[in-house]
Target: ATP-dependent DNA helicase
Amino acid sequence: MLKIHSGGDFVSQPELENYLQTYFGYSTFRVGQKEIIQDIMEGRDVLGVLPTGSGKSICYQLSAKLLDGITIVVSPLISLMIDQVKQLKAINFKEVIALNSFMEPMERRKVYQKLHTYKLIYVSPELLQKKELQNILSKLHISLFVIDEAHCISQWGYEFRPDYLKLNTIVETLNNPTILALSATATSNVQRDIIDAMKRPAIIKHIYPMDRDNIAFCVEEVETDNEKLPILSNLLTNYRIPTLIYFSSRQTAEDISKLLSDKIPFRRIAFYHGGMEQIDRIAIQQQFMNDQLDIICCTSAFGMGINKSNIRLVIHYHLPPQLESFIQEVGRAGRDGESSLSLLLFSKKDLYIPKRIIQSELPSKQDLQSVFSHLLNIFNSSGKLPSNEQQVQNLLQLSETQWRFLRFQLEKHGMIDENTILYEKENWEKVFQKINNLIFERSLLKENKLNEIIQWVHEKECLRKHLYKSFQSSYQKPKFQCCSNCGFSISEWEPLEITNVKNVELSWENKLKKLLFIGVNDEAK
Model:
C-alpha cells in the first residue's frame, strides 16, 4: 500500500522512483520532473519551463496520485483535456475527469455531485469562472493548482483568454493550494508575466534549456504562394512521414489540403482549424494519433499537448506572428528523439497576414471612443448590457477577441459589473486613457515580436543559435543535422518513414461514430 502524502511532506528520490514505476511504468525521471515533484510535495509553488516533449504532465499527474487532496489542472483546450483523460484511464488512473462547457446540464450536475471522488480534475479557465463550480471546489480539499501551458497567461491572457488573468482570484477562493505553472516556451518576460499574474514573487523556478537537438531547421524564401505548392507536393511525395503544415488562414488550410489530396492521392490528408465542429476536430486528432492520417493542414488550433512521438516534419506555410509560437509548433516534431525537420516557407508578400492579425486583435482608439459613447447611452437608458455576448459584440461593432479584451479591462477598472454599467465621469476619463495606453503597448509588443521572427528568417548565421538566444544562453550540438545556414539540405535528409500503413476505408467524416461512440454518455466528453 503506497502512502498518501500531505503537502509539506519530504519524499525521498528512491520513493519517488518507486511511485513513478508503480503508477506510470517508467523506471527513471526525465529532466526536471523529479526536482519539480519534490518541491511540490514539500508545499512549494513552482514555475517549470521544460522542453517540448519532456513529459511535463508527469509533474502533476504523479503529484496528484501522492497528495492527499485534489489536483486541479487548468488546460487551454478541450481536445487536450479529453486526450489526457483517455491516456490516464488507459493506465488505470481512474480518478480523473475533464470538465468542459460542452457537458449537458444534467450530466454536469451529476459530475459536480461526485467531484470529491476524483484525484485529478481538468478544467478550462472559462469554466472556472462559474460561481457554481467555484462554490463546490471551495468546499473540497485542493492540494495542487496547475496551470498547464502557462505561457497562455502572457500570450493569450490579454486578448483571447482574459480569464487566464483571473486565475489568482480562483486560487484564493480555493484556499491557496500549492501552485505549479508549466510551459515549454517562456522567456524571462513571460516568466515575469506568469509570476505577476499569479502574485507569487517567491515561486521556485526550474528553468531548463528548450532547444531540441534532433530537429533541423530550414527556411526557404519564395516570391509567391504559387511556388509553395510544388515544394510541398514534392517533399510529401518523397517522404511518407507524419506531417503538420501550419497556416495563418483557415480558408488556405482547407484549400491547400484539397489541392494536396488531388496531387498526392496516395497520402491521407485532412484539414483542421478552430472554425470546425468540436466533434470533427476530435475525430481528426484521433485519426492522426492512430497513424490513420499522414498530413494535417492546420491552424495554430492544432497540436497543443498532442502526445504523438513520431511527427517527423513541421512545415510553416505562413510566417508565425512570434518566435514563441514557432518554437511551440516546431516542438511537436521528433519527440521520440529521431531525426525531424522544421521547414518555413517565407514570402514577403505574406507579411500582411500577421500584420493584419495584430491589427484585428485589439480595438483602435476610434473603436474605444465608440464603445465608451455606446456605454454612456446604455447607462442613460437601461443601465445594463444585453446578457447575450453576441448581441453586445454586434451592438458595439467589435470582434469576439476585441470585446473579450475590453470586457476584462472594463471589469478590472470598475466600469461594469457583470452586465451592469457603473458610471462615474472622472473614473471613465482615467480608464479610457489607461485602456488606450494598454492597447498601444500591446500592439507595439506584438509588432516587436513579429519583427524578431522576420529578423530570424533573414539570419545569415546559424538558425538554431539565433532561434533560442532569447530563451537561453547556449544551445546543444545538433544530434543529426543543424540548419539550412549550416549546410543542411533537405535532399540529404533520411527520416524514419512509415512502413506499416493502416488502411482507412472510410473518410474521417464517416468514421466519427466509430471513433467517438456517438450516443454513449461519457463523463469526460
